Records
---
Amino acid sequence: MPSLKDLRGRINSVKSTRKITSAMKMVAASKLRRAQSAAEAARPYAVRMEAMLARLAANVAGQPNAPRLLAGNGRDQVHLIVPLTADRGLAGAFNSSIGRQTRALARKLLAEGKTVKILPVGRKGRDFLKREFKDVHGELMLGGRKGIDFIQAEEVATQVVAMFDANEFDVATLVYNQFRSVISQVPTEVQLIPLPVPEDNGNGAGRAMYEFEPDEETILARLLPKNLAIQIYRAMLESNAGFYGAQMTSMDNATRNAGDMINRLTMHYNRTRQANITRELIEIISGAEAI
């Protein structure tokens, strides 16, 4: 049975932990508001950009001069997976859910006879995946800057495009947590390269009714890399908001659990102290009667 001194030490230790988790919860809550606003503001632009390019791409898909980012290289053997996680933890299953989603996708592709390469964005994704997969490239870090900015997305997009131009992969897929609410972040897969083109149902609804200057191929060649960075940027903002939501929830649970443990330890301390007092009283009374 632990002594009163040990119990006091454990109670003080848990109280210190509760102060830390409570402070981290408040910090995450304050950052969540800004991150959620940024993610929600980026959604309409990213969605419209993607829809516009998809409709424009429908006009040139299948043509011999279509941009490679749109048409691909004609192969489907080597797949690049870009899992987007955080550099830090203490956010429940936020990072591990992306790791599991990436692992499941990689195993599926390997079972089909494909070659899989992984380019993790975020330290936690690399740490999770390098234990199982050998072909994990050095991760791209999200830390070192105040918040998420477009330059980071451009850096990721530039490296992905460079690898594609060097024929290091045929298909690229981004895996990230889509922010739904504070307690809901949904692992999502988005194909980056080649750009998915909606199927033409034959009635011309998928075609854009525009005139372009210069031609559509030139516009696509310029806009596709920019769209790649925009979609990655949107995913980063979604993931950033989801991280703070998950961290706030995790720290709230940790604070509650610490409070419950303090109550249990305090009750144990009081019972042990009462037992010691009772035993000392019995010893005193026994000694007095002996005299």
Note: The CA atoms of residues 181 and 215 lie 42 Å apart.
---
Amino acid sequence: MDDESAIINRRIVGVAHAFGSLVRSRRKAMRMRQDQLALATGVGRRFVIDLEAGKPSCQLGRSLLVAKALGLDLAILASDACPATAPELPDVDEQEEPDGYSIRIL
């Protein structure tokens, strides 16, 4: 793994942990147990546990569903879950992927 990949992986792990902490704090502030949140959102309790623990491989759709149920929106997540001290991701212009799709990350 090169240095750039290592930096990106560390950032992913950091954001996942920050997001999990934010979800846990909000759930506790709402005086909700993990099993109650799981039931309210249609996910399993194990998913909530993993999400709050900062497991980076938690499914994005389910994660956002849980966040929405707790009243968290993307603006809050962008400001609270991504600390200003995190290293910046590199800007990438459009690139042609092998499958013919173009991506643009800025």
Note: The first strand starts at residue 92 and ends at 96.
